TrEMBL record, chain A:
It comes from Cyprinus carpio. GO terms for biological process: protein N-linked glycosylation. This is Alpha-1,3-glucosyltransferase. Its EC number is 2.4.1.-. It is a multi-pass membrane protein. It is found in: Endoplasmic reticulum membrane. The keyword Glycosyltransferase applies. GO terms for molecular function: dolichyl pyrophosphate Glc1Man9GlcNAc2 alpha-1,3-glucosyltransferase activity. It is an enzyme of class 2 (transferase). Keywords: Endoplasmic reticulum, Glycosyltransferase, Membrane, Transferase, Transmembrane, Transmembrane helix. Belongs to the ALG6/ALG8 glucosyltransferase family. The keyword Transferase applies.
From TrEMBL, chain B:
It comes from Cyprinus carpio. It catalyses: an alpha-D-Man-(1->2)-alpha-D-Man-(1->2)-alpha-D-Man-(1->3)-[alpha-D-Man-(1->2)-alpha-D-Man-(1->3)-[alpha-D-Man-(1->2)-alpha-D-Man-(1->6)]-alpha-D-Man-(1->6)]-beta-D-Man-(1->4)-beta-D-GlcNAc-(1->4)-alpha-D-GlcNAc-diphospho-di-trans,poly-cis-dolichol + a di-trans,poly-cis-dolichyl beta-D-glucosyl phosphate = an alpha-D-Glc-(1->3)-alpha-D-Man-(1->2)-alpha-D-Man-(1->2)-alpha-D-Man-(1->3)-[alpha-D-Man-(1->2)-alpha-D-Man-(1->3)-[alpha-D-Man-(1->2)-alpha-D-Man-(1->6)]-alpha-D-Man-(1->6)]-beta-D-Man-(1->4)-beta-D-GlcNAc-(1->4)-alpha-D-GlcNAc-diphospho-di-trans,poly-cis-dolichol + a di-trans,poly-cis-dolichyl phosphate + H(+). It is an enzyme of class 2 (transferase). It comes from the Eukaryota. The keyword Ligase does not apply. InterPro entries: Glyco_trans_ALG6/ALG8. GO terms for cellular component: endoplasmic reticulum membrane. GO terms for molecular function: dolichyl pyrophosphate Man9GlcNAc2 alpha-1,3-glucosyltransferase activity. This is Alpha-1,3-glucosyltransferase. The keyword Nucleus does not apply.
């Protein structure tokens, strides 16, 4: 007897995917974890053992509390459950304490906190415009669920490297979903909570601000989509303001006396332009140009003029593995203010665009991704994990539009590959390759099938660039360690990876901008509220 | 989505779970003086690399057979030799004669795990893919689902990547043998199976079906003409393969005898185990026998062209068998991977095959039972009973797992829980053996040519 394809009820596939990825996360409990593990253990300890007034002053460990207060309260809540696993982890002096019970507890806390992410993904699936597919594997909601639940970056950053991004991105995606569903107060509330959980989301606050002001506070638009000044609703503005301010006051209230201290912990500008692992952004390219210039210059000068003593040129001291300030040698040095200006300039056109011609929630989402990407590209001390802030929201757009799918593929594959240096242990090498291949093959084939009408999704140049990641990986992780240069230039593979990926990320950024500035309005005649 | 991408996703999921399980402990980790199967495999690399061939199976000053002496056929020894060459390149300390006893280090563990992964990718996984692609009924989605279930079977994963063994090699070769026979390439099939036999002597349990099938096929073709030639070719293939594998041991008549003595140590009793009392010995006997009959069932399932829903019974059977390995896995410190992989496998099988909603009597091949029970118990709703039995078994296994790990057995019966696990498993296996045998006898034979056209 031949059975038809398994007939399951409507939502059981979602449950199966969520359960499956949770099982995988459980299997990874014993994998390598980074210093972030100790960071969070330390925060569990200090929130449990010390009164709130001392949380932002405590400095026994080098990993001081540098997240906003709501996250500290979250850790405080977790610490009460941690007591039942291993009391010793809650002692502040137990630096680098990592008993099996501690590892189990911390890993499980990330896995359980991901439930928020699951819920958010479910809500996002409801926001898709159309959800018809020939079979389950071709349904946009199914593809979106896999792209989000099984996202490679999230898996390895959260469940191997160790962080709580799943939970945080869950709040972000839920906020976005609420805006799609026109529940703007909830969306604003969720975003305020998010800002108070991790302040890195300030990157995308401009998108929220402009969108809510333009599309929510101004209740109507004119027929051609332009602003109708008279439709300004003070009530809405005040309500939004109240929501945001009350969230901040609940969060920062207990620490109002020590605000400067808290802020100095949250925004430590003493750190260098580039994080230890060189996020693939503009500054990676800038640094390379600087180094190259130096190398080219010095050779030229030495050979041609025999004048300049090589030691007289200030060397670009970028001992690439350390987090420190450094000076560029030939090109002008970059200060935090300069990066801020560059960032603002990069996102300004997008903000203007949604102010003048908002495209509803989708335009907001596109602007959000651009803000995230712009801050990634030009920001100060950006960690390459921040690329996830652009990749995850972009997944929502990718299952609905061809051009977005193409940008998503380029951004996600290069962005995910740039996370490889985070897992540098030999034991994790097969896992990261298998999972990367898993996600890449799935995203390529499912999006290709979804948008099969209209030719190939990626043009030959893009495909070649992406394929170039394979030889890059082979060289950096297999060939290079066996060569002589491994001892003298140990950070060359990192540099290569950053630079190569920076090209892809920049390309995606430009294409995203083009798509935002050229997309036609679909809401000209519809009232925005 | 295209077939190749779905299959590669299955393979990648299988590989990921395998490697993730390998992060955990192995048998005998940190337990001198004897350690465990992991140390045995390392020791064989040491022995085969440093000693000449004629000393491998003999008790000499350099080769103490009491400390994990070689007791698998020559192909395992050659495999260990190849691994030893690689080990020597990476770190000679790993295979230093005598000095490397009990060697344990993180990099060595990575190396050993990598050898298992390598052979798995080379031999077992392609066989599974081809099997699902060519010999499974149903749409391509069902084939992919079957492949996923097989690749995620926790038993093989935990024994090979946790406890530490190379079952994927012998099972993979046996599966290639089955594939060969199914595709009509008898010589290739015989060759593959003979290699499997020369890797682990336990494959002897499968040799009888292979032998009967090939003999029957030749007889069907007429023993006077084509059948006879076919039989001759197959016999020649088998003999030549044996000869090639045993060649280094054929110079001296003492050699093959000693090897056979190591493979089948009847003097010591068929099974080496540390448990002393008779109950456990009896159960150990049953456990190991059924360890092998799993593969027999797999073979049987192919031979009778079982349909999709019968595969669910097979899955359940495999799951029960896996549960019977619980005491062993807990001893190795593999409780977490055991729980995760068995739950995952259970949910996956139930979800993908979703047979519980559809297992009508006919699909469960219960016709025969029906005939038997109709006479005495006409009002019996057989399929409902089967479903209840299924859930009861699951609950019983869950309870036993929980008690085995967290409760202390009473002082009078220190081995209470492993024995209970064995008894429960044995009862299930008895039922399965009866069931599968009945099915094979009652199922009408379908044409083999139907399979070849796939």
């Amino acid at each position: 007897t031949v059975m038809a394809a398994p007939v399951t009820n409507d939502q059981s596939w979602f449950f199966a995917l969520a359960l499956g990825v949770s099982f995988l996360k459980c299997l990874l409990i014993n994998a390598y974890h980074s210093t972030d593990f100790e960071v969070h253990r330390n925060w569990l300890a200090l929130t449990h053992s010390l009164p709130a007034a001392q949380w932002y002053y405590e400095a026994t460990s080098e990993w001081t509390l540098d997240y906003p207060p709501l996250f500290a309260w979250f850790e405080y809540g977790l610490s009460h459950i941690a007591r039942f696993f291993d009391k010793e982890m809650l002692v502040v002096q137990n630096l680098n304490y990592a008993s099996p019970a501690t590892i189990l507890f911390q890993r499980l806390s990330v896995i359980v906190a991901d439930v928020v992410f699951f819920y958010a993904v479910k809500e996002c699936c409801k926001c898709l415009r159309e959800d018809k597919g020939k079979d389950l594997l071709g349904k946009p909601s199914f593809i979106l669920t896999v792209l989000l639940l099984w996202n490679f970056g999230l898996l390895i950053v959260d469940h191997i490297h160790f962080q709580y991004n799943g939970f945080l991105f869950g709040v972000l995606l839920l906020s976005i979903a609420r805006h799609f569903q026109n529940r703007h107060f909830e969306g604003a509330l969720l975003f305020s909570i998010l800002l108070n959980l991790k302040h890195i989301y300030l990157y995308i606050a401009p998108a929220y601000g402009i969108y809510l002001l333009r599309c929510f506070c101004f209740t109507q638009s004119n027929a051609d989509g332009s602003l109708q000044w008279r439709s300004f609703s003070v009530v809405r503005l005040v309500t939004l303001g109240t929501i945001v301010l009350s969230t901040f006051s609940v969060s920062f209230g207990p620490f109002i006396g020590q605000l400067p201290q808290v802020l100095s912990r949250l925004f430590p500008f003493k750190r260098g332009l580039c994080h230890a692992y060189w996020a693939p952004n503009i500054w990676a390219l800038y640094n390379i140009a600087d180094k190259n210039h130096l190398i080219v210059c010095s050779y030229y000068e030495r050979v041609k003029f025999k004048l300049l003593d090589i030691n007289k040129l200030p060397k670009a001291s970028m001992t690439g593995g350390l987090v420190q300030e450094f000076q560029h040698s030939v090109l002008p040095s970059v200060s935090p203010l300069a990066t801020l200006i560059c960032t603002v300039l990069s996102i300004l056109p997008a903000l203007f665009r949604i102010w003048h011609r908002p495209n509803g929630a989708r335009g907001f989402l596109r602007c959000l991704v651009i803000c995230a990407l712009g801050s990634f590209m030009f920001g100060w001390h950006v960690h390459e994990k921040a690329i996830l802030m652009a990749i995850l929201p972009l997944s929502l757009l990718a299952v609905e539009s061809r051009e977005d799918a193409r940008i998503f593929l380029i951004l996600s594959i290069t962005g995910h590959y740039s996370l490889f240096p985070l897992l540098f242990t030999t034991q994790e090498l097969p896992i990261k390759i298998f999972l990367m291949l898993l996600f890449t093959i799935f995203s390529l084939t499912s999006l290709k099938t979804l948008f099969r009408k209209g030719g190939a999704l990626l043009n030959p140049l893009e495909a070649t660039y992406l394929l170039g990641l394979i030889p890059l990986e082979l060289i950096c992780e297999f060939v290079y360690p066996l060569t002589v240069w491994q001892k003298t230039f140990p950070f060359l593979p990192l540099m290569l990876t950053s630079v190569y990926c920076a090209l892809g990320v920049t390309y995606a950024f430009i294409r995203l901008y083009i798509s935002l500035l050229t997309c036609s309005d679909s809401t000209k005649k519809i009232k925005t509220q | 989505m295209e077939n190749w991408s779905l299959f590669s996703l299955c393979v990648l999921l299988g590989l990921t779970s395998r490697w993730a399980v390998s992060f955990h402990s192995y048998s005998g980790a940190g337990k001198p003086p004897m350690f465990g199967d992991y140390e045995a495999q390392r020791h064989w690399q040491e022995v085969t690399y440093n000693l000449p061939v004629h000393e491998w199976y003999f008790n000499t000053t350099n080769n103490d057979l009491n400390y994990w002496g070689l007791d698998y056929p020559p192909l395992t020894a050659y495999h260990s030799l190849v691994c030893a060459y690689v080990a020597k390149l990476l770190n000679p300390e790993w295979v230093e004669l005598h000095a490397s006893r009990g060697y344990e280090s993180h990099s060595h563990k990575l190396f050993m795990r990598a050898t298992v992964l390598f052979t798995d990718i080379l031999i077992y996984i392609p066989a599974v893919l081809l099997y699902c692609f060519y010999f499974c009924d149903g749409s391509s989605k069902q084939k992919v689902a079957t492949a996923l279930c097989i690749l995620l079977y926790p038993g093989l994963i935990l024994i090979d990547y946790g406890h530490f063994q190379y079952n994927s090699v012998s099972l993979g070769l046996a599966l290639w043998g089955i594939l060969g026979l199914g595709l009509g390439w008898d010589l290739f099939g015989s060759l593959a199976f003979t290699l499997a036999l020369n890797y682990k002597q336990m494959e002897l349990y499968h040799s009888l079906p292979f032998f009967c099938y090939l003999l029957g096929k030749c007889i069907k073709q007429g023993l006077t003409r084509r059948g006879f030639f076919q039989l001759a070719k197959i016999s020649l293939t088998v003999l030549v393969t044996f000869a090639l594998c045993w060649m280094p041991f054929l110079s001296d008549p003492k050699q093959p005898l000693q090897v056979l003595h190591r493979l089948f140590p009847f003097g010591r009793g068929l099974f080496e185990d540390k448990v002393a009392n008779t109950w456990c010995s009896l159960n150990v006997l049953i456990k190991i026998k059924t360890l092998l009959s799993r593969e027999t069932q797999l073979f049987l399932s192919y031979c009778t062209h079982l349909g999709f829903c019968l595969f669910l019974r097979l899955m359940f059977f495999l799951f029960v068998f896996f549960h019977s390995m619980l005491p062993l896995l807990v001893k190795d410190g593999l409780l977490l991977p055991y729980v995760v992989t068995s739950l995952a496998f259970l949910f996956l099988s139930l979800y993908l095959l979703s047979a519980l909603e559809r297992s009508t009597e006919e699909e469960l091949r219960l016709g025969l039972y029906r005939k038997l029970t109709q006479r005495w118990l006409p009002k019996l709703n057989l399929s409902r009973i089967i479903k209840w039995k299924f859930w009861f078994s699951l609950v019983a296994m869950a309870v036993l797992s929980f008690t085995s790990v967290w409760l202390e057995p009473p002082a009078k019966f220190p081995d209470l829980f492993p024995v209970l696990v064995s008894i429960l498993s044995f009862l299930h296996f008895l039922g399965f053996i009866i069931y599968f045998n009945l099915v094979q006898l009652m199922e009408p034979q379908r044409k083999k040519s139907q399979k070849k056209t796939n």
